[in-house]
Design brief:
heterodimer; A: about 120 residues; mainly alpha; Arc Repressor Mutant, subunit A; 3-stranded antiparallel β-sheet; about 55% helix; about 10% strand; elongated; B: about 140 residues
Chain lengths: ~120, ~140
């Protein structure tokens, strides 16, 4: 029996979770398979974040369903080593999130400077 | 540990398993093999993180924000499905949910019973799908 799951779209302004943000950032550079993603995310976060496979593939499944990433056929692609890459929609979501964070960072620093000046 | 990992993958919905189980096992093994020399404390931390990650991931799959299979059945065009087919699917879902809960509470014997019942329920569902000419 095939379950019919209605497409659920996320509001564009909703902040991304940290694993999702890290996955999208990692894939922004180049397509990667699961283990390469884990390693790159660990490096991106300065060793602070090491995703478990359960967290990683849960996030990958949702991103595939949302159409933010897609499977990428490589010569050595097997069921055990699928590569993923960002779609145009995923790139746009990452850009929106980074813009939001940039805006927040600016506001935060501005308030810190203002409070130090007092 | 690999056997335990594969057992815990049974907590996930079948669709997720079909799509990711082999890949998840492969990534898990790569991660484990690369750093096994870091000692048993690392291995314990790694194993704990993987087990909790799998339980959380499976729970998210079943009870996350996405519509549940039951809701999808109730809301979708399949709401016209024969009642016994809907019940059979519910039986499968109920046993998997029970398995997730039992493992989260470290009740492994109960989890095994749910696992056995889930297999029977899934077989029953398969036979009903065949009876009604529905492909899984």
């Amino acid at each position: 029996m095939r379950h019919v799951v209605p497409q659920v779209t996320r509001p564009e302004t909703k902040p991304l979770t940290e694993p999702v943000l890290l996955i999208l950032t990692s894939l922004a550079g180049q397509p990667r398979h699961g283990y390469a993603l884990l390693k790159d995310i660990e490096g991106l976060s300065g060793g602070r974040v090491r995703l478990s496979t359960g967290t990683l593939f849960g996030a990958l499944r949702r991103l595939l369903e949302d159409g933010w990433i897609e499977r990428f056929e490589q010569e050595d692609t097997s069921r055990q080593k699928q590569a993923y890459r960002l779609t145009a929609a995923g790139r746009k979501q990452l850009q929106l999130e980074l813009d939001r964070m940039k805006q927040l960072t600016r506001a935060g620093f501005a308030r810190l400077r203002a409070s130090e000046a007092v | 540990m690999k056997q335990a990992y594969k057992f815990l993958l049974l907590l996930y919905p079948r669709g997720h398993r079909d799509q990711f189980a082999e890949e998840m096992t492969s990534v898990f093994e790569e991660a484990r093999n690369e750093r096994h020399y870091q000692g048993w404390t690392w291995y314990v931390r790694f194993s704990f993180a993987e087990i909790t990650g799998l339980i959380a991931g499976a729970t998210g799959c079943w009870f996350g924000k996405r519509p549940t299979p039951e809701a999808a059945i109730a809301n979708g065009p399949e709401s016209t499905l024969p009642q016994e087919l809907v019940e059979a699917q519910r039986r499968v879902d109920w046993n998997i949910a029970g398995m997730v809960q039992a493992i989260a509470n470290h009740q492994y014997e109960r989890a095994r019973i749910h696992s056995d019942e889930e297999r029977q329920a899934r077989e029953n569902l398969r036979l009903l799908q065949k009876k009604y000419g529905i492909t899984g």
